[in-house]
Model the fold of this input.
Amino acid sequence: MVILGAGPAGLVLGNLLHAAGVGCVVLERATPAQLRTRQRAGFLAANTVRILERHGLAGGLHRHGRTHATCEFRTEDGRFRLDYGHLGRGEPHTVYPQHLLVTDLLTQYQDAGGTVLFGTEAVTVQGLDGTRPTVTVRDADGRPGRWQGRYVAGCDGRHGAARRSLPPGSVRRHHLDHGVSWLGLLAEAPPSLDAVGYAVHERGFAGHMARTPDVTRYYLQCERGSTPDDWPDDRIWDELALRMRAADHGPLRRGPVLDRTVVHLESDVLEPLRHGPLLLAGDAASLISPSAAKGANLAVLEAEVLARALVDDLRHGAPEGIARYSDRCLHHIWRAQEFSRWMVRLLHVAPGSDGVPPFHDHLRRSRLASLRTSRSCQHWFAEQYAGV
Ligand code: FAS
Done:
Protein backbone atom coordinates (compact mmCIF):
# COMPACT_ATOMS: atom_id res chain seq x y z
CA MET A 1 0.00 0.00 0.00
CA VAL A 2 1.53 3.36 -1.00
CA ILE A 3 0.15 6.60 0.49
CA LEU A 4 1.02 9.89 -1.20
CA GLY A 5 1.10 12.83 1.23
CA ALA A 6 1.46 13.20 5.01
CA GLY A 7 -1.35 15.65 5.67
CA PRO A 8 -4.43 14.82 7.76
CA ALA A 9 -5.79 12.40 5.13
CA GLY A 10 -2.54 10.50 4.56
CA LEU A 11 -1.56 10.25 8.21
CA VAL A 12 -4.97 9.19 9.52
CA LEU A 13 -5.03 6.56 6.77
CA GLY A 14 -1.49 5.43 7.57
CA ASN A 15 -2.22 5.11 11.29
CA LEU A 16 -5.40 3.10 10.71
CA LEU A 17 -3.83 0.75 8.15
CA HIS A 18 -0.72 0.18 10.23
CA ALA A 19 -2.86 -0.60 13.28
CA ALA A 20 -4.79 -3.15 11.20
CA GLY A 21 -1.57 -4.86 10.09
CA VAL A 22 -1.69 -3.60 6.50
CA GLY A 23 1.85 -2.78 5.29
CA CYS A 24 2.06 0.78 3.97
CA VAL A 25 4.58 3.51 3.25
CA VAL A 26 3.85 7.25 3.24
CA LEU A 27 5.72 9.33 0.63
CA GLU A 28 5.98 13.01 1.57
CA ARG A 29 7.85 15.69 -0.32
CA ALA A 30 8.09 18.12 2.61
CA THR A 31 10.45 17.87 5.56
CA PRO A 32 9.23 16.97 9.07
CA ALA A 33 9.83 20.56 10.18
CA GLN A 34 7.70 21.94 7.34
CA LEU A 35 4.88 19.55 8.18
CA ARG A 36 5.00 20.38 11.87
CA THR A 37 4.80 24.15 11.31
CA ARG A 38 2.50 24.60 8.30
CA GLN A 39 -0.47 26.49 9.76
CA ARG A 40 -3.82 25.78 8.14
CA ALA A 41 -7.11 24.58 9.54
CA GLY A 42 -8.09 24.73 13.15
CA PHE A 43 -11.77 23.86 13.64
CA LEU A 44 -12.46 20.15 14.15
CA ALA A 45 -16.05 18.95 13.93
CA ALA A 46 -17.42 16.70 16.68
CA ASN A 47 -17.50 13.81 14.20
CA THR A 48 -13.81 14.32 13.46
CA VAL A 49 -13.02 14.17 17.17
CA ARG A 50 -15.05 10.94 17.44
CA ILE A 51 -13.11 9.38 14.56
CA LEU A 52 -9.76 10.31 16.13
CA GLU A 53 -10.94 9.06 19.55
CA ARG A 54 -12.08 5.74 18.02
CA HIS A 55 -8.56 5.08 16.86
CA GLY A 56 -6.64 6.44 19.83
CA LEU A 57 -5.45 9.50 17.90
CA ALA A 58 -7.11 12.22 19.98
CA GLY A 59 -4.65 12.51 22.89
CA GLY A 60 -3.16 15.84 21.81
CA LEU A 61 -6.46 17.50 21.03
CA HIS A 62 -7.87 16.39 24.37
CA ARG A 63 -4.87 17.91 26.18
CA HIS A 64 -4.61 21.15 24.23
CA GLY A 65 -7.79 21.57 22.20
CA ARG A 66 -10.54 23.93 23.33
CA THR A 67 -14.23 23.65 22.56
CA HIS A 68 -15.86 26.47 20.65
CA ALA A 69 -19.63 26.74 20.34
CA THR A 70 -20.56 30.33 19.48
CA CYS A 71 -20.42 32.46 16.39
CA GLU A 72 -21.15 36.16 16.10
CA PHE A 73 -22.41 37.88 12.97
CA ARG A 74 -21.79 41.61 12.53
CA THR A 75 -23.77 42.99 9.60
CA GLU A 76 -25.24 46.21 8.29
CA ASP A 77 -28.46 45.19 10.10
CA GLY A 78 -26.80 44.77 13.50
CA ARG A 79 -25.01 42.10 15.52
CA PHE A 80 -26.28 38.72 16.68
CA ARG A 81 -24.79 35.57 18.21
CA LEU A 82 -25.59 31.93 17.71
CA ASP A 83 -24.69 29.41 20.43
CA TYR A 84 -24.51 26.68 17.81
CA GLY A 85 -23.16 24.20 20.35
CA HIS A 86 -26.63 24.20 21.92
CA LEU A 87 -28.53 24.08 18.65
CA GLY A 88 -29.04 21.36 16.03
CA ARG A 89 -27.30 18.24 17.35
CA GLY A 90 -25.72 20.30 20.14
CA GLU A 91 -22.19 19.73 18.81
CA PRO A 92 -19.37 22.22 19.39
CA HIS A 93 -16.14 22.53 17.41
CA THR A 94 -12.81 21.65 18.95
CA VAL A 95 -10.23 24.31 18.19
CA TYR A 96 -6.95 22.50 17.58
CA PRO A 97 -4.54 23.87 14.94
CA GLN A 98 -3.97 21.48 12.05
CA HIS A 99 -0.19 21.52 12.35
CA LEU A 100 -0.49 20.22 15.93
CA LEU A 101 -2.85 17.45 14.79
CA VAL A 102 -0.46 16.52 11.96
CA THR A 103 2.42 16.45 14.46
CA ASP A 104 0.43 14.10 16.72
CA LEU A 105 -0.52 11.81 13.81
CA LEU A 106 3.05 11.72 12.54
CA THR A 107 4.49 10.93 15.96
CA GLN A 108 1.95 8.14 16.64
CA TYR A 109 2.46 6.62 13.19
CA GLN A 110 6.25 6.58 13.50
CA ASP A 111 6.22 5.44 17.15
CA ALA A 112 4.06 2.50 16.02
CA GLY A 113 6.73 1.62 13.44
CA GLY A 114 5.10 3.30 10.43
CA THR A 115 7.35 4.43 7.55
CA VAL A 116 7.31 7.96 6.16
CA LEU A 117 9.86 8.90 3.48
CA PHE A 118 10.33 12.65 3.71
CA GLY A 119 11.77 14.74 0.88
CA THR A 120 10.30 12.17 -1.50
CA GLU A 121 8.18 13.64 -4.23
CA ALA A 122 5.79 11.38 -6.11
CA VAL A 123 6.05 12.16 -9.82
CA THR A 124 3.59 9.78 -11.50
CA VAL A 125 1.36 6.85 -10.67
CA GLN A 126 1.54 4.25 -13.42
CA GLY A 127 -0.13 0.89 -14.11
CA LEU A 128 -3.65 2.05 -13.24
CA ASP A 129 -5.14 -0.62 -15.49
CA GLY A 130 -3.52 -3.40 -13.44
CA THR A 131 -3.32 -4.57 -9.83
CA ARG A 132 0.27 -3.50 -9.02
CA PRO A 133 0.50 0.26 -9.66
CA THR A 134 3.90 1.90 -9.62
CA VAL A 135 4.70 5.29 -8.13
CA THR A 136 7.75 6.96 -9.64
CA VAL A 137 9.46 9.32 -7.21
CA ARG A 138 12.28 11.82 -6.95
CA ASP A 139 14.20 12.19 -3.70
CA ALA A 140 15.56 15.41 -2.24
CA ASP A 141 18.72 15.02 -4.36
CA GLY A 142 16.65 14.47 -7.49
CA ARG A 143 17.47 10.75 -7.62
CA PRO A 144 14.66 8.73 -9.21
CA GLY A 145 12.97 5.79 -7.50
CA ARG A 146 9.88 3.58 -7.72
CA TRP A 147 7.39 2.17 -5.25
CA GLN A 148 4.80 -0.50 -5.93
CA GLY A 149 1.76 -1.64 -4.00
CA ARG A 150 -1.65 -3.30 -4.40
CA TYR A 151 -3.24 0.15 -4.03
CA VAL A 152 -2.11 3.80 -4.08
CA ALA A 153 -3.92 6.34 -1.90
CA GLY A 154 -3.72 9.84 -3.37
CA CYS A 155 -3.68 12.08 -0.27
CA ASP A 156 -1.32 14.60 -1.83
CA GLY A 157 -3.70 17.52 -2.26
CA ARG A 158 -5.18 19.19 -5.33
CA HIS A 159 -1.82 19.74 -7.05
CA GLY A 160 -0.38 16.34 -6.24
CA ALA A 161 0.81 13.46 -8.43
CA ALA A 162 -2.37 11.43 -7.88
CA ARG A 163 -4.60 13.92 -9.68
CA ARG A 164 -1.99 14.47 -12.38
CA SER A 165 -1.81 10.72 -13.06
CA LEU A 166 -5.51 10.25 -13.73
CA PRO A 167 -5.94 9.37 -17.41
CA PRO A 168 -7.67 12.15 -19.38
CA GLY A 169 -11.43 11.64 -19.45
CA SER A 170 -11.32 9.12 -16.58
CA VAL A 171 -12.91 11.53 -14.09
CA ARG A 172 -15.27 14.46 -14.25
CA ARG A 173 -14.04 17.59 -12.45
CA HIS A 174 -16.85 19.81 -11.16
CA HIS A 175 -15.35 23.24 -10.51
CA LEU A 176 -16.76 26.43 -8.99
CA ASP A 177 -14.94 29.73 -8.79
CA HIS A 178 -16.62 31.68 -5.96
CA GLY A 179 -15.21 34.90 -7.37
CA VAL A 180 -13.86 35.94 -3.99
CA SER A 181 -10.33 36.14 -2.59
CA TRP A 182 -9.39 36.15 1.08
CA LEU A 183 -6.23 37.31 2.74
CA GLY A 184 -5.67 34.55 5.34
CA LEU A 185 -3.81 35.96 8.35
CA LEU A 186 -2.27 34.61 11.52
CA ALA A 187 -1.77 37.31 14.18
CA GLU A 188 0.33 36.99 17.32
CA ALA A 189 -2.50 38.34 19.41
CA PRO A 190 -5.10 36.80 21.73
CA PRO A 191 -8.60 36.39 20.28
CA SER A 192 -10.66 39.60 20.19
CA LEU A 193 -13.96 37.72 20.60
CA ASP A 194 -15.07 34.68 22.57
CA ALA A 195 -16.72 33.48 19.36
CA VAL A 196 -16.06 32.89 15.68
CA GLY A 197 -16.58 36.34 14.20
CA TYR A 198 -18.18 36.88 10.78
CA ALA A 199 -18.31 40.51 9.68
CA VAL A 200 -20.37 41.25 6.56
CA HIS A 201 -19.50 44.70 5.26
CA GLU A 202 -19.87 46.64 2.05
CA ARG A 203 -16.06 47.01 1.98
CA GLY A 204 -15.76 43.24 2.16
CA PHE A 205 -15.91 40.24 4.48
CA ALA A 206 -13.77 39.92 7.62
CA GLY A 207 -13.50 36.79 9.74
CA HIS A 208 -12.07 36.02 13.20
CA MET A 209 -11.25 32.48 14.34
CA ALA A 210 -9.33 31.62 17.50
CA ARG A 211 -6.40 29.23 17.05
CA THR A 212 -4.56 29.30 20.41
CA PRO A 213 -4.70 31.70 23.42
CA ASP A 214 -1.89 33.71 21.77
CA VAL A 215 -2.54 33.30 18.03
CA THR A 216 -5.69 34.27 16.14
CA ARG A 217 -6.64 33.64 12.52
CA TYR A 218 -8.29 36.45 10.62
CA TYR A 219 -9.58 36.62 7.09
CA LEU A 220 -10.01 39.74 5.01
CA GLN A 221 -11.75 39.69 1.64
CA CYS A 222 -9.40 41.30 -0.85
CA GLU A 223 -9.38 42.27 -4.50
CA ARG A 224 -8.67 39.46 -6.92
CA GLY A 225 -5.00 39.65 -7.87
CA SER A 226 -4.03 41.09 -4.45
CA THR A 227 -0.74 39.94 -3.02
CA PRO A 228 0.24 39.66 0.66
CA ASP A 229 2.69 42.55 0.10
CA ASP A 230 -0.27 44.87 -0.58
CA TRP A 231 -1.26 44.44 3.06
CA PRO A 232 1.14 45.85 5.65
CA ASP A 233 0.18 45.27 9.30
CA ASP A 234 -1.32 48.74 9.87
CA ARG A 235 -3.55 48.51 6.83
CA ILE A 236 -4.68 45.03 7.94
CA TRP A 237 -5.64 46.12 11.44
CA ASP A 238 -7.35 49.32 10.31
CA GLU A 239 -9.42 47.41 7.74
CA LEU A 240 -10.29 44.65 10.21
CA ALA A 241 -11.41 47.28 12.75
CA LEU A 242 -13.57 49.01 10.14
CA ARG A 243 -15.25 45.87 8.83
CA MET A 244 -15.72 44.31 12.30
CA ARG A 245 -17.27 47.60 13.41
CA ALA A 246 -14.85 47.85 16.31
CA ALA A 247 -16.13 51.35 17.05
CA ASP A 248 -19.53 49.84 17.94
CA HIS A 249 -18.53 46.48 19.36
CA GLY A 250 -15.13 46.98 20.98
CA PRO A 251 -11.50 47.18 19.86
CA LEU A 252 -9.55 44.31 18.32
CA ARG A 253 -6.51 42.95 20.19
CA ARG A 254 -3.66 43.78 17.85
CA GLY A 255 -0.27 42.18 17.40
CA PRO A 256 2.31 41.36 14.71
CA VAL A 257 0.96 39.48 11.69
CA LEU A 258 2.92 36.20 11.55
CA ASP A 259 1.62 34.83 8.26
CA ARG A 260 -0.38 36.18 5.35
CA THR A 261 -1.61 34.12 2.42
CA VAL A 262 -3.98 35.05 -0.35
CA VAL A 263 -6.47 32.22 -0.86
CA HIS A 264 -8.71 32.35 -3.85
CA LEU A 265 -12.01 30.74 -2.92
CA GLU A 266 -12.79 27.95 -5.29
CA SER A 267 -14.20 24.47 -4.94
CA ASP A 268 -13.92 21.34 -6.98
CA VAL A 269 -15.03 17.73 -6.78
CA LEU A 270 -13.65 14.82 -8.78
CA GLU A 271 -16.03 12.02 -9.72
CA PRO A 272 -15.37 9.16 -9.21
CA LEU A 273 -12.77 9.15 -6.42
CA ARG A 274 -11.34 5.85 -7.57
CA HIS A 275 -9.57 4.85 -10.76
CA GLY A 276 -8.59 1.18 -10.62
CA PRO A 277 -6.03 0.78 -7.80
CA LEU A 278 -5.73 4.58 -7.24
CA LEU A 279 -8.05 6.08 -4.60
CA LEU A 280 -8.26 9.80 -3.72
CA ALA A 281 -8.93 11.31 -0.30
CA GLY A 282 -8.85 14.81 1.20
CA ASP A 283 -8.03 17.79 -0.97
CA ALA A 284 -6.90 15.41 -3.73
CA ALA A 285 -10.53 14.27 -3.93
CA SER A 286 -12.21 17.60 -3.48
CA LEU A 287 -11.15 21.15 -2.71
CA ILE A 288 -13.56 23.12 -0.54
CA SER A 289 -13.45 26.81 0.35
CA PRO A 290 -12.40 27.59 3.95
CA SER A 291 -15.69 29.52 4.43
CA ALA A 292 -17.22 26.72 6.51
CA ALA A 293 -14.07 25.05 7.95
CA LYS A 294 -14.74 21.68 6.27
CA GLY A 295 -11.56 20.72 4.38
CA ALA A 296 -9.55 19.07 7.10
CA ASN A 297 -12.70 17.48 8.56
CA LEU A 298 -13.62 15.87 5.24
CA ALA A 299 -10.03 14.62 4.92
CA VAL A 300 -10.25 12.75 8.23
CA LEU A 301 -13.68 11.31 7.43
CA GLU A 302 -12.59 10.06 3.99
CA ALA A 303 -9.41 8.57 5.44
CA GLU A 304 -11.45 6.44 7.88
CA VAL A 305 -13.88 5.28 5.15
CA LEU A 306 -10.92 4.40 2.90
CA ALA A 307 -9.02 2.62 5.67
CA ARG A 308 -12.03 0.41 6.47
CA ALA A 309 -12.48 -0.46 2.79
CA LEU A 310 -8.80 -1.30 2.31
CA VAL A 311 -8.60 -3.45 5.44
CA ASP A 312 -11.76 -5.33 4.39
CA ASP A 313 -10.22 -6.04 0.99
CA LEU A 314 -6.58 -6.65 1.89
CA ARG A 315 -7.10 -8.52 5.16
CA HIS A 316 -10.50 -10.15 4.70
CA GLY A 317 -10.84 -10.49 0.92
CA ALA A 318 -14.02 -8.37 0.87
CA PRO A 319 -13.73 -5.77 -1.96
CA GLU A 320 -17.24 -4.29 -1.56
CA GLY A 321 -16.01 -1.32 0.51
CA ILE A 322 -13.54 -0.34 -2.19
CA ALA A 323 -16.30 -0.52 -4.78
CA ARG A 324 -18.55 1.72 -2.67
CA TYR A 325 -15.81 4.09 -1.46
CA SER A 326 -16.37 6.83 -4.03
CA ASP A 327 -20.15 7.04 -3.68
CA ARG A 328 -20.00 7.00 0.10
CA CYS A 329 -17.53 9.89 0.27
CA LEU A 330 -19.13 11.92 -2.51
CA HIS A 331 -22.36 11.97 -0.50
CA HIS A 332 -20.56 13.77 2.38
CA ILE A 333 -18.48 15.93 0.04
CA TRP A 334 -21.46 17.37 -1.83
CA ARG A 335 -23.31 18.19 1.40
CA ALA A 336 -20.25 20.01 2.72
CA GLN A 337 -19.81 21.79 -0.62
CA GLU A 338 -23.40 22.96 -0.59
CA PHE A 339 -23.12 24.46 2.89
CA SER A 340 -19.75 26.00 2.09
CA ARG A 341 -21.28 27.71 -0.95
CA TRP A 342 -24.23 28.90 1.16
CA MET A 343 -21.74 30.47 3.60
CA VAL A 344 -19.87 32.21 0.79
CA ARG A 345 -23.12 33.76 -0.45
CA LEU A 346 -24.10 34.72 3.12
CA LEU A 347 -20.85 36.45 3.99
CA HIS A 348 -20.03 38.48 0.91
CA VAL A 349 -21.85 41.62 -0.19
CA ALA A 350 -22.44 41.28 -3.92
CA PRO A 351 -20.83 44.15 -5.86
CA GLY A 352 -23.78 46.14 -7.14
CA SER A 353 -23.75 48.29 -10.24
CA ASP A 354 -24.34 52.02 -9.74
CA GLY A 355 -24.77 51.46 -5.99
CA VAL A 356 -27.98 49.40 -6.31
CA PRO A 357 -27.45 45.99 -4.64
CA PRO A 358 -28.37 43.27 -7.09
CA PHE A 359 -31.21 40.88 -6.49
CA HIS A 360 -29.15 38.24 -4.64
CA ASP A 361 -27.79 40.81 -2.22
CA HIS A 362 -31.32 41.25 -0.96
CA LEU A 363 -31.44 37.46 -0.67
CA ARG A 364 -28.23 37.59 1.39
CA ARG A 365 -29.75 40.05 3.86
CA SER A 366 -32.92 37.95 4.07
CA ARG A 367 -30.88 34.83 4.83
CA LEU A 368 -29.15 36.72 7.64
CA ALA A 369 -32.55 37.90 8.92
CA SER A 370 -33.81 34.30 8.95
CA LEU A 371 -30.67 33.20 10.79
CA ARG A 372 -31.19 35.95 13.31
CA THR A 373 -34.92 35.34 13.92
CA SER A 374 -35.89 31.76 12.99
CA ARG A 375 -35.17 28.99 15.51
CA SER A 376 -35.56 26.24 12.93
CA CYS A 377 -33.11 28.06 10.63
CA GLN A 378 -30.67 28.29 13.53
CA HIS A 379 -30.99 24.55 14.23
CA TRP A 380 -30.35 23.81 10.55
CA PHE A 381 -27.32 26.12 10.52
CA ALA A 382 -25.82 24.53 13.66
CA GLU A 383 -26.20 21.02 12.24
CA GLN A 384 -24.50 21.96 8.96
CA TYR A 385 -21.86 24.23 10.49
CA ALA A 386 -20.53 21.87 13.18
CA GLY A 387 -21.26 18.64 11.33
CA VAL A 388 -19.54 16.74 8.51
P1 FAS B 1 -2.84 18.45 2.67
O1 FAS B 1 -2.65 19.48 1.58
O2 FAS B 1 -2.96 18.89 4.09
O3 FAS B 1 -1.62 17.41 2.63
C1 FAS B 1 -1.10 16.95 1.40
C2 FAS B 1 0.34 16.56 1.63
O4 FAS B 1 0.85 16.01 0.42
C3 FAS B 1 1.22 17.76 1.96
O5 FAS B 1 1.98 17.49 3.11
C4 FAS B 1 2.11 17.93 0.73
O6 FAS B 1 3.41 18.37 1.07
C5 FAS B 1 2.15 16.52 0.17
N1 FAS B 1 2.39 16.45 -1.27
C6 FAS B 1 1.82 17.20 -2.24
N2 FAS B 1 2.26 16.79 -3.45
C7 FAS B 1 3.10 15.73 -3.23
C8 FAS B 1 3.85 14.88 -4.08
N3 FAS B 1 3.81 15.02 -5.40
N4 FAS B 1 4.60 13.90 -3.51
C9 FAS B 1 4.64 13.75 -2.16
N5 FAS B 1 3.95 14.53 -1.29
C10 FAS B 1 3.19 15.51 -1.85
N6 FAS B 1 -9.68 23.50 6.32
C11 FAS B 1 -10.51 23.51 7.40
O7 FAS B 1 -11.19 22.50 7.64
N7 FAS B 1 -10.59 24.62 8.21
C12 FAS B 1 -9.84 25.74 8.01
O8 FAS B 1 -9.92 26.68 8.79
C13 FAS B 1 -8.94 25.76 6.89
N8 FAS B 1 -8.13 26.84 6.68
C14 FAS B 1 -7.25 26.81 5.64
C15 FAS B 1 -6.39 27.91 5.43
C16 FAS B 1 -5.48 27.90 4.37
C17 FAS B 1 -4.56 29.09 4.18
C18 FAS B 1 -5.40 26.76 3.51
C19 FAS B 1 -4.42 26.73 2.37
C20 FAS B 1 -6.24 25.67 3.72
C21 FAS B 1 -7.17 25.68 4.78
N9 FAS B 1 -8.02 24.59 5.03
C22 FAS B 1 -8.90 24.60 6.07
C23 FAS B 1 -8.02 23.43 4.16
C24 FAS B 1 -6.91 22.46 4.55
O9 FAS B 1 -6.78 22.36 5.90
C25 FAS B 1 -7.11 21.13 3.82
O10 FAS B 1 -8.46 20.82 3.67
C26 FAS B 1 -6.45 19.93 4.51
O11 FAS B 1 -5.11 20.22 4.71
C27 FAS B 1 -6.63 18.70 3.62
O12 FAS B 1 -5.82 17.68 4.08
P2 FAS B 1 -5.09 16.67 3.04
O13 FAS B 1 -6.05 16.21 2.05
O14 FAS B 1 -4.36 15.70 3.87
O15 FAS B 1 -4.09 17.59 2.21
